[in-house]
Design a protein that fits this description.
Length: 416
């Protein structure tokens, strides 16, 4: 074993008697090889005031500065076989974490069992078992400008993978089978999100898109263009064919500001239908006031008391009075309704212009019926007579009261 290092005049240090420049530190250990040979590791520190070159037959010249410490490795029976295992530098630095790390990073054991440079933060994967059988419990605080790069992050058990914030709140959960939950511990779909989400690009699905599926009493809706900072088009497109691949039907809000137009667009030569399936009216209005109502009985214009029926009735009412144009055929002894009870809100009188005809004659008549006075009027046509009657509820009807021929009428009525 080396007992010390000396400094000969030529500057070549060799084993010899102790000097003031170099003092012996205790041996760190003795390792016995498979052939029985002992290998010794010793620690030396230069406590002198000047540096010198350290050398031995197996040692390349190594700078040995004041305060430096070196680790020497040699066989017990041959001190001249010494090699420098590492230059530690100032031993006092080893008493701090930063100093110890700085010294370890100087040791590059590439190709050997000692790869201390892997601690530089650039080789985290070298610290993991390749088979992943050991969990990695570490605080990887790599700083704001660094990143942890991984090719694969895999859960160790069927319980899945959790990513939490510093307070333990769940952020991301990968369940067994691959379902991913965001703030959702038990994701039931490929992506299951609890809370709001935001996309800055386009959301594309390969199937249907269900909005607010499975909600209870809370509000649910679809908003397009919400939280705008400037005017822009907002629209919903329906594409059902390959001819009009951009849109077949479009609901569009234009981009000209607060008073922009809203358009409901239909492309192609097919009919554009708007209909209610059950017994419900279609209502159109302006300034929050109803202007048009389409019912089973007809169309109401400017209020619910008028209609335009499939047989050609034109019926308008504005709350004060109304107008009716209609026709009836095959008039016999059974009364046919021209204006239904309450449909026109006749409260006073009705003025009627009537064209009356049979197969043998025709005539025109003008008359007024009054709820407070005359409520019937007869129109004679040859042997036939046809009676117009205003009933107490405001309805108007016509029937044959004499003769045998069926009649037909075209009526225009105005009322208050």
């Amino acid at each position: 074993m080396f007992s010390a290092l000396s400094l000969p005049p030529d500057g070549d240090a060799r084993a010899g008697s102790p000097t003031a420049e170099a003092r012996l530190r205790p041996a760190l250990g003795v390792v016995r090889g498979s052939d029985g040979a002992e290998v010794v590791v010793e620690l030396y520190t230069n406590t002198g005031g000047a540096g010198f070159w350290l050398s031995a037959p197996a040692i390349h010249h190594t700078a040995f500065e004041p305060g430096d410490t070196v680790l020497l490795l040699f066989t017990a029976d041959d001190p001249d076989s010494a090699v420098v295992l590492g230059r530690v530098g100032n031993l006092a630095d080893l008493h701090t974490a930063a100093g110890l790390l700085a010294q370890l990073l100087e040791v590059d054991g590439a190709g050997s069992a000692l790869d201390a440079d892997l601690l530089d933060g650039e080789h985290e994967s070298a610290l993991l078992r390749a088979d992943g059988s050991r969990p990695l419990l570490a605080n990887w605080d790599v700083g704001a400008a660094a990143a942890i790069l991984l090719a694969t992050l895999r859960a160790r058990a069927a319980a899945g993978l959790r990513i939490e914030d510093a307070a333990g709140a769940l952020g991301l959960r990968v369940a067994a089978g691959g379902n991913v939950g965001i703030r959702q511990a038990t994701p039931s779909e490929a992506l299951d999100v609890t809370g709001n989400g935001r996309l800055s690009g386009t959301l594309t699905t390969g199937g249907s898109l269900s909005v607010c599926d499975g909600v209870a009493a809370q509000e649910s809706g679809l908003s397009v263009g919400n939280a705008r900072t400037a005017s822009g088009f907002a629209y919903l497109d329906l594409v059902g064919d390959t001819t009009y691949a951009d849109y077949g039907t479009r609901l569009l809000r234009e981009n000209s500001g607060a008073n922009a137009r809203t358009l409901f667009l239909h492309r192609g030569t097919g009919e554009f239908h708007m209909r209610s399936i059950e017994n419900a009216a279609l209502v159109l209005g302006t300034q929050s006031v109803e202007r048009l109502r389409v019912r089973n009985a007809g169309v109401s214009i400017c209020g619910p008391g008028a209609g335009f029926d499939p047989q050609g009735v034109l019926h308008t009412f504005d709350g004060l009075g109304g107008r009716l144009i209609t026709s009836k055929s095959a008039i016999g002894t059974t009364a046919q309704t021209l204006l239904a009870d309450g449909a026109g809100d006749v409260t006073q009188l009705v003025h009627v212009d009537a064209l009356v005809s049979t197969s043998s004659a025709r005539t025109f008549a003008t008359f007024t019926l009054d709820l407070a006075g005359t409520t019937t009027h007869a129109v004679a046509l040859g042997s036939e007579s046809f009676q117009f009657r205003l009933n107490a509820g405001g309805s108007l009807d016509v029937r044959r009261t004499a003769g045998t021929l069926a009649g037909a009428v075209v009526v225009q009525a105005m009322w208050l």
